[in-house]
């Protein structure tokens, strides 16, 4: 049985390592990544722009995400809203998203529709048509989106206030969707300025994944994206960095709408960097160890089962960011227990962990889980495309993506403890309590 | 006696109202303010630029103040360091300062040296010479200045961390001197860019105060500053504003160097605005009432004398800023008392004040003190020049400056309580504890 399992893992790892990735660069500076996967006659077509909300001009928060919406307003060739209808009529689906670091547009269609997707995407890369009416209507849409996702959710509001406190100098303190008062003032000209400055082939990555042949994708990309002129306004993404953080910041957000109080804490944390991912890998394993699995993690066992102080306890860390990320915990107390006691219980578990170190058996189990998750993740072609696109958008390379699984396995328990001792520094932390108004009084 | 006092105050108020201020604007956009005061044959010559640290490009904090230093590096006509020597050789003194909102240069000399001062100041408005060596040397000077004023002073460090937490979006969260890591990277080109963009007559206010005749000052200003071309790069000073602040931020800074622990709290507060100074005046009176006089204020009486919980308690508010200012308290506990008890004592006094309102007798006394301070302040010609220069630099008018004393007297107790109820909102507050490391553990 052990042999058989070992054999299965080796096979899967082999399949995983066989991500067939080809990369090219067009003369106008556009990066092209092709991921071959012939299991189904579909293709995922994505264009990623190396521009996110953290690149917005001060005072114009939300413009990156607003522009993402406006990119569906059409061009000379395509009427407003028609792009999604065309994709849909071909049996495909499309979407877009904006993050702190990048903005991406994608479609999933039958493989023989790729040419049409490139036609549409290359067209809106430079030929966006925007009327004042479109802008007015769509601004209302993003304001309503903020209302639904953020303003009506005390937890989301606490997250915003905490991010603003976490980043003293870096723009990650500003929410992707934007501050409401700044969103309300975003104009057609703001959108056009942001579009003209940042949407260009030399600021973009084309990712095509699925039932395709790299040489054919390249030829098609040259035909559609090749004629788009590069911009001379693309500058290195050098953002303000943090000064020394000398004091934990603590926030209590009390709101009548809170149904479930909790304690949440974030710490400033290293991110994945090109050729330098070991600390991030150690943090990833640390998050898994402490609070990955909802029933077997260190926090879950200690807080949910041993002491029965929490109904939920988790750790989170991503590391997929251009600049310093956060590492965090959230603990939801059992009914009736104060947030003070809850936080004290969390800190007791962390102190114990820092003293006792990593349990070797747990560490092996976590590594096996992480390996399995990495392997299973590769089965999803859209997920793979997204992984490469996101990585390249934040400056990582194809090699970095392909090395990640191995680095996760290579990281030692000592590196995890070193990362834990470095990151769990309360001076660089923000602790938030989400509570009901009665409890706060 | 009552009559006599009334008469004296009326006389002084009459003298005060007689600030003889003339204003002009040169063809190139430079504002000129002349304050006549013939009691001594001296003149104060100031040039104020409407540019401060809150106008710096992101990631280049400290450049406004660094440029202020570099402005003494000379021109084609004046060798490095010579400007101060020339002023000194004429029996005068000179200085400069940078704040969040403006940068000012001034000299105090015998009245017949005004022409020379204008020659020198107009010269360095556009002809600054900067070598790489000058920049390297002076950068070391500002880093040492930061070391002395901030890094070696835990209270100053706490102030920086608090300001960063107070302002979630507005640049007042960045220190005037700059974050050390950004100061260290400031270059000659950064300085020249900032200088060329912002130092121009249409971004400057000339203030001349003392034993001068306005028409002669104007003629002299036309001769010296008139030929300096305006800049087409001066834009309206529209800075990012704050989103809703939903949660008090709390910080504890523990440092072995702390000799005297204290509690400090700031609240976001309205500033003085052109034609709209009543709320700021109410806040000014509130600060005086609560914590102006070190022995008779509400806080001093309650905390230092009645309950003997503090050795010092004060309130502070200025309002002389372009954008939202802060209103604050600091309380230094008696030895051995915890900062938690100290803060609770402060809040108890504030709660009592908000419940009981303004004591009419105290209010009358505070108004008399404020009136006296305003009147005595006018006796200092350099102080008057500074008041007008600062006011005009943040968009107030000569009329606003002249109205201020009257508005302070007009504000009612009801307005003070309304301002108190608005400003003392813990959701918009930052509370800091400065403590020793032992106490924190």
Textual characterization of the structure:
The structure is a homodimer of 441-residue chains. Chain A has 441 residues and is an alpha+beta fold. The first copy, chain A, is 46% helix and 18% strand. Chain A contains 17 helices and eleven strands. Chain A has a six-stranded mixed beta sheet with strand order 1-2-6-3-5-4, sandwiched between helices. In chain A, strand 1 (20-25) and strand 2 form a beta hairpin. The longest helix of chain A is centred in the N-terminal third of the chain and has 20 residues, at 132-151. At the A-B interface, helix 6, helix 7 and strand 7 of A face helix 6, helix 7 and strand 7 of B. Strand 7 (249-254) of chain A pairs antiparallel with strand 7 of chain B.
Write the layout of secondary structure elements.
2 copies of one chain form a homodimer.
Chain A lengths: L1 H16 L2 E6 L5 E6 L5 E8 L13 H8 L11 H8 L3 E6 L4 E8 L3 H13 L5 H20 L2 H13 L13 H4 L4 H11 L5 E7 L3 H11 L24 E6 L7 E8 L8 H14 L6 H9 L3 E8 L7 E9 L5 H18 L3 H18 L3 H13 L4 H13 L2 H11 L5 E7 L1 H4 L1
Parallel strand pairs in A: 2-6, 7-11
Antiparallel strand pairs in A: 1-2, 3-5, 3-6, 4-5, 8-10, 8-11, 9-10
Helix pairs in contact in A: 2-5, 2-8, 10-16, 11-12
Question: Brief overview, please?
Answer:
The structure is a homodimer of 441-residue chains. Chain A is built from 17 helices and eleven strands. Chain A has 441 residues and is α+β, with helices and mostly antiparallel strands.
